[in-house]
Structure formats: C-alpha cells, structure tokens
Amino acid sequence: MKRLCMTLAVVAVALMCAQAAFAQAEKAPPGKSDTLKWAEAHFKYVGEKTCKMCHKFEFDSWSTTKHAQAWAALKPEEQKKPECAECHITGKTATDSLLVNVACESCHGPGSDFKSMKVMKDAKLAAAAGLLPITEATCVRCHNKRSPNFKAFVFADALKAGIHAHPAKAGATTTTTTTTTTTTETKPK
Q: What does the DSSP assignment read for 153-181?
C-alpha cells in the first residue's frame, strides 16, 4: 500500500510538472511575423504614462516625433476607419480605453507583465513577459504599401534614426530636446 501511494505521488508530481511545462510553452513567443498577435493575446496594454515613470528620457524624446502625434494626423473621418486607425493607435487597455498615437507599446508590445523594474532588468524575464524585440516586421506592420501616404521604407535607416533617443552609456555624451506631449485615452462610444 505504501509503495502504491509513493507511485501515485510520483505520477501526480510528474503530471503537474508536465502541465506547468505545457502552460509555459503556450506563452512562448512564436515567429517574428505574428509576435505582436501573440503578445496581445497574452498581455494587456498599460499606456505610455506607465512607461514614462521609469523611461522619462525616452518618453520625452519620443514626444517630439510624428509617432507621438499620429492620431491628430488623421482627419476625423479617417479616425473612424479601422484601416486608418489601426496604424495611428497603440491599442486598448484592459478597461477598454483607447490609447491613441504610436506609443511605446506599439513597438515594444503590451506592457502589463514587463512593466516592473525587476522584470525589465532581466532580459530573459522581460521577453517571457511580452517585451518584444524591434525588428523590421515591427515597423512594416504600418510602414507598407497599404498606407495611402507610403514612402519608401528602409529598416536600416529607420533603425539609425530611431523613434526615441536612448540614455548615454557611461563615458558617452548625447543631447536631446525634451518636450512633453500628452496623449489621450478615450472610451469608445
């Protein structure tokens, strides 16, 4: 009887481990082309104000770009068209607030699980929590020939220009203009 109980306990532990491994595998990011869809299915958008708390330098730099004004660039009738709006918003929060403009999470993915400092300081943990790598696929979701205003897009050039400045590494110097722009969260009607 004792041996049977031990065997059942071992089997139960093995099943629990297998179930945990399966659950983790479901959260593993897929290939590059569908990474954002994977992230949106597993994590929630939190908005750039949350990102700004720790990344003020990057936020201030981004605030001076066209991406920070993407929603206002659309005419009111274009804001109502899904095919236009999809590239001029970040997404919707868990409370269904619309995050307008092309902000942090448009490129880096929904931040609900990677927003904490502890997670952000560990690259593997941050990736597992939905922090997406910036690849050409990130940009060409919108910078493509479907856009009525498409201009030639070269990822290598865009990468050099960047969307926001990065803090200087030790020993390096950098300057940036900082302007704060407030983006808007709106509830759908």
A: --HHHHHHH-SS--PPPTT----------
